[in-house]
Amino acid sequence: MPGPLDGIRIVDISIAITGPLAAGMLVDQGAECVKVEQAPLGDLVRWIGTSVGGISAMFQVANRGKRSIVLDLRQDDGLAILRDLVADADVMVQNFRPGVAERLGVAYADMAAVNPDLVYADLTGFGTTGPYTHRRVYDTAVQAQSGMADNQTGLNDDKPTFLRQLAADKLTAYTACQAVTAALLARQRGAGGQHIQLSMLDACIAFLFVDGAEHEVILDGDHSGPQSVAANNTALVLTDGFVAVAAPNDTEFHGLAAAFGVDSSDPDIARITDRLRNRPKVSLVHAEIRRNATGFTLAEAEAALEANSVPFGTVLSVEEVPEDPQVVANEVFVEHDHPAAGRIRQHRPPARFLGTPAELRELSAPTLGQHTDEVVAETGRADLIDSLREAGVIG
Protein backbone atom coordinates (compact mmCIF):
# COMPACT_ATOMS: atom_id res chain seq x y z
CA MET A 1 0.00 0.00 0.00
CA PRO A 2 1.26 3.53 -0.74
CA GLY A 3 0.81 5.03 2.73
CA PRO A 4 -1.48 7.35 4.70
CA LEU A 5 -0.80 10.38 2.48
CA ASP A 6 -1.64 8.61 -0.77
CA GLY A 7 -3.27 11.11 -3.11
CA ILE A 8 -1.60 14.20 -1.62
CA ARG A 9 0.33 16.13 -4.26
CA ILE A 10 3.27 18.39 -3.42
CA VAL A 11 5.18 20.98 -5.41
CA ASP A 12 8.61 21.48 -3.85
CA ILE A 13 10.60 24.52 -5.02
CA SER A 14 12.92 24.51 -1.99
CA ILE A 15 16.63 23.71 -1.89
CA ALA A 16 19.22 22.33 0.55
CA ILE A 17 17.83 20.26 3.45
CA THR A 18 15.03 21.98 5.38
CA GLY A 19 12.38 22.21 2.66
CA PRO A 20 13.37 19.13 0.66
CA LEU A 21 13.49 16.92 3.76
CA ALA A 22 10.10 18.20 4.96
CA ALA A 23 8.57 17.35 1.59
CA GLY A 24 10.59 14.13 1.47
CA MET A 25 9.10 12.83 4.72
CA LEU A 26 5.63 13.43 3.30
CA VAL A 27 6.68 11.44 0.23
CA ASP A 28 7.89 8.67 2.55
CA GLN A 29 4.33 8.57 3.89
CA GLY A 30 2.71 8.22 0.48
CA ALA A 31 2.50 11.71 -1.04
CA GLU A 32 3.57 12.48 -4.61
CA CYS A 33 6.02 15.33 -5.19
CA VAL A 34 7.34 17.32 -8.13
CA LYS A 35 10.68 18.91 -7.28
CA VAL A 36 11.35 22.11 -9.26
CA GLU A 37 15.06 22.81 -9.84
CA GLN A 38 17.06 25.47 -11.62
CA ALA A 39 19.60 24.88 -14.38
CA PRO A 40 22.46 24.20 -14.67
CA LEU A 41 23.27 22.51 -11.32
CA GLY A 42 19.86 22.09 -9.70
CA ASP A 43 19.68 21.79 -5.93
CA LEU A 44 23.11 22.65 -4.50
CA VAL A 45 22.93 19.68 -2.11
CA ARG A 46 23.28 17.35 -5.11
CA TRP A 47 26.98 18.25 -5.07
CA ILE A 48 27.81 18.53 -1.35
CA GLY A 49 29.52 15.76 0.58
CA THR A 50 29.74 12.24 -0.81
CA SER A 51 28.26 12.59 -4.30
CA VAL A 52 28.15 10.35 -7.37
CA GLY A 53 26.53 11.41 -10.62
CA GLY A 54 24.86 14.44 -9.07
CA ILE A 55 23.34 12.34 -6.26
CA SER A 56 24.82 13.07 -2.83
CA ALA A 57 23.98 11.10 0.28
CA MET A 58 21.98 14.03 1.65
CA PHE A 59 20.14 14.60 -1.61
CA GLN A 60 19.25 10.92 -1.91
CA VAL A 61 17.68 10.67 1.53
CA ALA A 62 15.81 13.99 1.36
CA ASN A 63 14.53 13.58 -2.20
CA ARG A 64 13.95 9.89 -2.80
CA GLY A 65 10.73 9.18 -4.64
CA LYS A 66 10.28 12.71 -6.03
CA ARG A 67 10.09 13.71 -9.68
CA SER A 68 12.59 16.36 -10.79
CA ILE A 69 11.76 19.06 -13.32
CA VAL A 70 14.16 21.78 -14.45
CA LEU A 71 12.16 24.99 -14.79
CA ASP A 72 13.19 28.64 -15.14
CA LEU A 73 10.76 30.53 -12.91
CA ARG A 74 12.14 33.86 -14.10
CA GLN A 75 10.45 33.35 -17.47
CA ASP A 76 6.72 33.81 -17.92
CA ASP A 77 6.31 30.39 -19.52
CA GLY A 78 8.15 28.77 -16.63
CA LEU A 79 5.96 30.52 -14.11
CA ALA A 80 2.88 29.45 -16.08
CA ILE A 81 3.95 25.81 -15.85
CA LEU A 82 4.46 26.17 -12.10
CA ARG A 83 0.99 27.68 -11.71
CA ASP A 84 -0.52 24.73 -13.53
CA LEU A 85 1.29 22.33 -11.21
CA VAL A 86 0.12 24.28 -8.17
CA ALA A 87 -3.46 24.33 -9.42
CA ASP A 88 -3.59 20.55 -8.97
CA ALA A 89 -1.46 20.40 -5.80
CA ASP A 90 -2.31 20.13 -2.12
CA VAL A 91 0.98 21.44 -0.73
CA MET A 92 3.74 23.79 -1.86
CA VAL A 93 7.08 24.10 -0.07
CA GLN A 94 9.59 26.93 -0.50
CA ASN A 95 12.51 28.25 1.56
CA PHE A 96 13.55 31.48 -0.14
CA ARG A 97 14.71 34.48 1.86
CA PRO A 98 11.87 36.91 2.59
CA GLY A 99 11.06 38.95 -0.49
CA VAL A 100 12.43 36.51 -3.07
CA ALA A 101 9.16 34.62 -3.53
CA GLU A 102 7.35 37.91 -4.02
CA ARG A 103 9.83 39.02 -6.68
CA LEU A 104 9.47 35.72 -8.51
CA GLY A 105 5.68 35.74 -8.30
CA VAL A 106 5.50 32.54 -6.25
CA ALA A 107 4.52 33.96 -2.85
CA TYR A 108 1.49 32.67 -0.97
CA ALA A 109 -0.82 35.33 -2.37
CA ASP A 110 0.22 34.42 -5.92
CA MET A 111 -0.26 30.71 -5.42
CA ALA A 112 -3.47 31.00 -3.38
CA ALA A 113 -4.95 32.96 -6.27
CA VAL A 114 -4.38 29.86 -8.38
CA ASN A 115 -5.43 27.34 -5.71
CA PRO A 116 -7.24 28.68 -2.62
CA ASP A 117 -7.09 25.24 -0.96
CA LEU A 118 -3.29 25.13 -1.13
CA VAL A 119 -1.26 24.48 2.04
CA TYR A 120 1.79 26.70 1.52
CA ALA A 121 4.87 26.06 3.69
CA ASP A 122 6.99 29.21 3.81
CA LEU A 123 10.31 28.29 5.47
CA THR A 124 12.87 30.95 6.37
CA GLY A 125 16.08 31.22 8.35
CA PHE A 126 15.29 33.94 10.87
CA GLY A 127 11.67 34.84 10.11
CA THR A 128 9.73 37.25 7.92
CA THR A 129 10.25 40.40 10.01
CA GLY A 130 13.07 41.73 12.16
CA PRO A 131 16.71 42.77 11.84
CA TYR A 132 18.12 39.47 10.53
CA THR A 133 15.58 38.56 7.85
CA HIS A 134 17.80 39.78 5.00
CA ARG A 135 20.68 37.47 5.92
CA ARG A 136 21.56 34.34 4.00
CA VAL A 137 21.24 31.43 6.40
CA TYR A 138 22.69 27.97 6.72
CA ASP A 139 22.53 25.46 9.55
CA THR A 140 25.54 26.67 11.54
CA ALA A 141 24.18 30.23 11.72
CA VAL A 142 20.98 28.99 13.32
CA GLN A 143 22.77 26.59 15.67
CA ALA A 144 24.71 29.65 16.87
CA GLN A 145 21.85 32.13 17.05
CA SER A 146 19.36 29.79 18.74
CA GLY A 147 21.65 28.82 21.64
CA MET A 148 22.19 25.27 20.41
CA ALA A 149 25.95 25.68 19.98
CA ASP A 150 26.35 27.23 23.43
CA ASN A 151 24.19 24.44 24.87
CA GLN A 152 26.97 21.97 24.00
CA THR A 153 29.43 23.61 26.40
CA GLY A 154 30.05 22.35 29.92
CA LEU A 155 32.67 22.03 32.65
CA ASN A 156 36.17 22.67 31.27
CA ASP A 157 34.64 23.31 27.85
CA ASP A 158 33.68 26.93 27.40
CA LYS A 159 33.89 27.13 23.61
CA PRO A 160 30.70 26.80 21.57
CA THR A 161 30.45 23.44 19.85
CA PHE A 162 28.37 22.63 16.79
CA LEU A 163 26.57 19.35 16.46
CA ARG A 164 28.36 17.38 13.75
CA GLN A 165 25.24 17.18 11.65
CA LEU A 166 22.81 19.66 10.14
CA ALA A 167 20.62 19.54 13.21
CA ALA A 168 18.93 22.91 12.68
CA ASP A 169 17.97 21.99 9.13
CA LYS A 170 16.63 18.59 10.11
CA LEU A 171 14.59 19.52 13.14
CA THR A 172 13.07 22.43 11.20
CA ALA A 173 12.12 19.94 8.49
CA TYR A 174 10.45 17.68 11.05
CA THR A 175 8.55 20.64 12.47
CA ALA A 176 7.49 21.73 8.99
CA CYS A 177 6.35 18.24 8.06
CA GLN A 178 4.13 18.03 11.14
CA ALA A 179 2.76 21.52 10.50
CA VAL A 180 1.83 20.63 6.92
CA THR A 181 0.04 17.50 8.08
CA ALA A 182 -1.86 19.55 10.69
CA ALA A 183 -2.85 22.09 8.02
CA LEU A 184 -4.06 19.28 5.74
CA LEU A 185 -6.19 17.95 8.59
CA ALA A 186 -7.60 21.43 9.23
CA ARG A 187 -8.40 21.75 5.53
CA GLN A 188 -10.21 18.42 5.59
CA ARG A 189 -12.29 19.78 8.47
CA GLY A 190 -13.31 22.80 6.41
CA ALA A 191 -10.67 25.42 7.21
CA GLY A 192 -9.44 25.64 3.63
CA GLY A 193 -5.88 26.21 2.52
CA GLN A 194 -3.48 28.31 4.52
CA HIS A 195 -0.10 29.96 4.73
CA ILE A 196 2.36 28.30 7.16
CA GLN A 197 5.30 30.46 8.25
CA LEU A 198 8.16 28.70 10.01
CA SER A 199 11.68 29.95 10.67
CA MET A 200 14.64 27.76 11.48
CA LEU A 201 15.37 30.03 14.45
CA ASP A 202 11.92 29.51 15.95
CA ALA A 203 12.01 25.76 15.40
CA CYS A 204 15.44 25.41 17.01
CA ILE A 205 14.55 27.54 20.01
CA ALA A 206 11.43 25.44 20.57
CA PHE A 207 13.53 22.29 20.30
CA LEU A 208 16.21 23.56 22.70
CA PHE A 209 13.90 25.00 25.33
CA VAL A 210 12.13 21.71 26.03
CA ASP A 211 15.09 20.47 28.08
CA GLY A 212 18.14 22.58 27.30
CA ALA A 213 17.32 25.97 28.82
CA GLU A 214 15.84 25.21 32.21
CA HIS A 215 16.89 28.49 33.85
CA GLU A 216 15.15 30.46 31.11
CA VAL A 217 11.88 28.57 31.65
CA ILE A 218 11.69 28.24 35.45
CA LEU A 219 12.76 31.80 36.15
CA ASP A 220 12.44 31.62 39.94
CA GLY A 221 14.10 28.22 40.41
CA ASP A 222 17.52 27.09 41.64
CA HIS A 223 19.95 28.05 38.89
CA SER A 224 23.07 26.63 40.52
CA GLY A 225 23.06 23.59 38.26
CA PRO A 226 23.44 23.38 34.49
CA GLN A 227 20.83 24.65 32.03
CA SER A 228 20.13 21.11 30.80
CA VAL A 229 19.46 17.87 32.65
CA ALA A 230 21.53 16.17 29.95
CA ALA A 231 24.54 18.46 30.45
CA ASN A 232 26.53 15.96 32.49
CA ASN A 233 25.80 12.91 30.34
CA THR A 234 29.03 11.16 29.43
CA ALA A 235 29.72 7.54 28.60
CA LEU A 236 31.21 5.09 31.09
CA VAL A 237 34.71 4.04 30.06
CA LEU A 238 35.22 0.25 29.99
CA THR A 239 38.28 -1.84 29.20
CA ASP A 240 37.23 -2.33 25.57
CA GLY A 241 34.48 0.17 24.84
CA PHE A 242 31.92 2.58 26.20
CA VAL A 243 28.33 2.46 27.44
CA ALA A 244 25.91 5.29 28.03
CA VAL A 245 23.55 4.95 30.97
CA ALA A 246 20.53 6.82 32.33
CA ALA A 247 19.35 6.17 35.86
CA PRO A 248 16.94 8.87 37.02
CA ASN A 249 14.51 6.86 39.14
CA ASP A 250 15.25 5.01 42.38
CA THR A 251 15.34 1.49 40.95
CA GLU A 252 17.67 2.53 38.16
CA PHE A 253 20.02 4.56 40.36
CA HIS A 254 20.52 1.75 42.85
CA GLY A 255 20.65 -0.80 40.05
CA LEU A 256 23.46 1.13 38.40
CA ALA A 257 25.41 1.19 41.63
CA ALA A 258 24.87 -2.54 42.17
CA ALA A 259 25.91 -3.34 38.59
CA PHE A 260 29.37 -1.92 39.27
CA GLY A 261 29.70 -3.04 42.87
CA VAL A 262 29.08 0.31 44.56
CA ASP A 263 27.27 0.68 47.90
CA SER A 264 24.26 3.02 47.61
CA SER A 265 22.56 2.11 50.89
CA ASP A 266 23.03 5.54 52.50
CA PRO A 267 19.49 6.70 53.44
CA ASP A 268 20.45 10.24 52.36
CA ILE A 269 20.37 9.07 48.74
CA ALA A 270 17.60 6.50 48.94
CA ARG A 271 14.98 8.36 46.92
CA ILE A 272 15.09 10.91 44.15
CA THR A 273 13.94 13.64 46.54
CA ASP A 274 16.74 12.68 48.93
CA ARG A 275 19.29 12.80 46.13
CA LEU A 276 18.17 16.30 45.15
CA ARG A 277 19.01 17.46 48.68
CA ASN A 278 22.29 15.58 48.88
CA ARG A 279 23.96 16.06 45.52
CA PRO A 280 27.55 15.83 46.82
CA LYS A 281 26.89 12.30 48.11
CA VAL A 282 25.32 11.34 44.79
CA SER A 283 28.38 12.65 43.00
CA LEU A 284 30.61 10.44 45.13
CA VAL A 285 28.58 7.37 44.17
CA HIS A 286 28.77 8.24 40.48
CA ALA A 287 32.51 8.82 40.75
CA GLU A 288 33.01 5.36 42.25
CA ILE A 289 30.83 3.82 39.55
CA ARG A 290 33.05 5.38 36.90
CA ARG A 291 36.21 4.14 38.58
CA ASN A 292 34.89 0.59 38.90
CA ALA A 293 33.57 0.57 35.32
CA THR A 294 37.10 0.79 33.94
CA GLY A 295 37.69 -2.77 35.14
CA PHE A 296 34.68 -4.18 33.25
CA THR A 297 34.69 -5.49 29.71
CA LEU A 298 31.85 -4.42 27.45
CA ALA A 299 30.26 -7.85 27.65
CA GLU A 300 30.48 -7.85 31.47
CA ALA A 301 29.01 -4.35 31.72
CA GLU A 302 26.13 -5.14 29.39
CA ALA A 303 25.28 -8.27 31.36
CA ALA A 304 25.44 -6.44 34.71
CA LEU A 305 23.32 -3.52 33.50
CA GLU A 306 20.69 -5.83 32.01
CA ALA A 307 20.59 -7.90 35.22
CA ASN A 308 19.92 -4.74 37.24
CA SER A 309 17.36 -3.26 34.79
CA VAL A 310 19.45 -0.18 34.06
CA PRO A 311 18.70 1.66 30.79
CA PHE A 312 21.87 1.71 28.70
CA GLY A 313 23.18 1.81 25.18
CA THR A 314 26.46 0.62 23.81
CA VAL A 315 28.40 3.38 22.07
CA LEU A 316 28.60 2.33 18.42
CA SER A 317 30.46 3.93 15.58
CA VAL A 318 28.30 5.10 12.67
CA GLU A 319 29.79 2.28 10.61
CA GLU A 320 28.61 -0.30 13.16
CA VAL A 321 24.99 0.88 13.31
CA PRO A 322 23.61 -0.90 10.19
CA GLU A 323 24.88 -4.28 11.45
CA ASP A 324 23.70 -3.90 15.04
CA PRO A 325 21.42 -6.87 15.88
CA GLN A 326 18.52 -4.67 16.97
CA VAL A 327 18.80 -2.50 13.87
CA VAL A 328 18.81 -5.65 11.74
CA ALA A 329 15.79 -7.01 13.60
CA ASN A 330 13.96 -3.70 13.03
CA GLU A 331 14.74 -3.93 9.30
CA VAL A 332 15.80 -0.28 9.33
CA PHE A 333 17.99 -0.29 6.23
CA VAL A 334 17.28 -1.23 2.63
CA GLU A 335 19.69 -1.42 -0.29
CA HIS A 336 19.18 -0.88 -4.00
CA ASP A 337 21.03 0.14 -7.15
CA HIS A 338 20.60 3.78 -8.12
CA PRO A 339 20.83 4.24 -11.90
CA ALA A 340 23.25 7.17 -11.53
CA ALA A 341 24.85 6.83 -8.08
CA GLY A 342 25.34 3.08 -7.84
CA ARG A 343 24.76 1.07 -4.69
CA ILE A 344 22.63 2.86 -2.07
CA ARG A 345 21.90 1.89 1.53
CA GLN A 346 19.28 4.04 3.23
CA HIS A 347 16.87 3.90 6.14
CA ARG A 348 13.23 3.08 5.59
CA PRO A 349 10.58 5.58 6.75
CA PRO A 350 10.81 5.22 10.55
CA ALA A 351 7.09 5.31 11.35
CA ARG A 352 5.24 2.11 10.52
CA PHE A 353 1.55 2.58 9.68
CA LEU A 354 -0.05 -0.77 10.32
CA GLY A 355 -3.39 0.30 8.85
CA THR A 356 -1.99 2.11 5.81
CA PRO A 357 1.52 0.70 5.31
CA ALA A 358 3.86 3.17 3.63
CA GLU A 359 6.10 1.69 0.97
CA LEU A 360 8.38 3.88 -1.12
CA ARG A 361 7.09 4.01 -4.67
CA GLU A 362 10.61 4.80 -5.86
CA LEU A 363 13.75 4.17 -3.82
CA SER A 364 15.97 6.53 -5.81
CA ALA A 365 16.25 10.30 -5.75
CA PRO A 366 15.81 11.75 -9.25
CA THR A 367 18.62 12.89 -11.48
CA LEU A 368 18.43 16.55 -12.46
CA GLY A 369 15.46 17.09 -14.75
CA GLN A 370 14.77 13.37 -15.01
CA HIS A 371 11.01 13.91 -15.19
CA THR A 372 10.83 17.27 -16.96
CA ASP A 373 9.25 15.99 -20.16
CA GLU A 374 6.62 13.83 -18.49
CA VAL A 375 5.62 16.50 -15.98
CA VAL A 376 5.42 19.22 -18.63
CA ALA A 377 3.35 16.89 -20.80
CA GLU A 378 0.95 16.40 -17.87
CA THR A 379 0.27 20.16 -17.95
CA GLY A 380 -0.94 19.86 -21.55
CA ARG A 381 2.26 21.10 -23.19
CA ALA A 382 3.55 17.92 -24.80
CA ASP A 383 3.70 19.57 -28.21
CA LEU A 384 5.69 22.52 -26.80
CA ILE A 385 8.48 20.60 -25.07
CA ASP A 386 11.08 21.17 -27.80
CA SER A 387 10.38 24.90 -28.10
CA LEU A 388 10.30 25.35 -24.33
CA ARG A 389 13.64 23.63 -24.02
CA GLU A 390 15.13 25.68 -26.83
CA ALA A 391 14.02 28.86 -25.06
CA GLY A 392 15.58 27.70 -21.81
CA VAL A 393 12.25 27.54 -19.99
CA ILE A 394 12.78 23.85 -19.20
CA GLY A 395 15.87 21.71 -19.06
Descriptive account of the structure:
This protein is an alpha/beta fold. It has two domains: 9-208 and 329-390, Rossmann fold (3-Layer(aba) Sandwich), CATH 3.40.50.10540; 236-314, no CATH class. The chain contains 16 helices and 13 strands. The chain has helices at 18-28, 57-63, 76-87, 100-104, 108-114, 139-145, 148-151, 167-191, 200-209, 250-259, 272-277, 279-293, 298-307, 325-329, 372-378, 385-390, and strands at residues 9-12, 32-37, 51-52, 55-56, 67-70, 91-94, 119-124, 194-199, 236-237, 242-245, 312-314, 333-338, 342-347. The strands form four sheets. A six-stranded parallel β-sheet has the order 5-2-1-6-7-8, sandwiched between helices. Strands 9-10-11 form a three-stranded antiparallel β-sheet, covered by helices on one side. The mean pLDDT is 95.
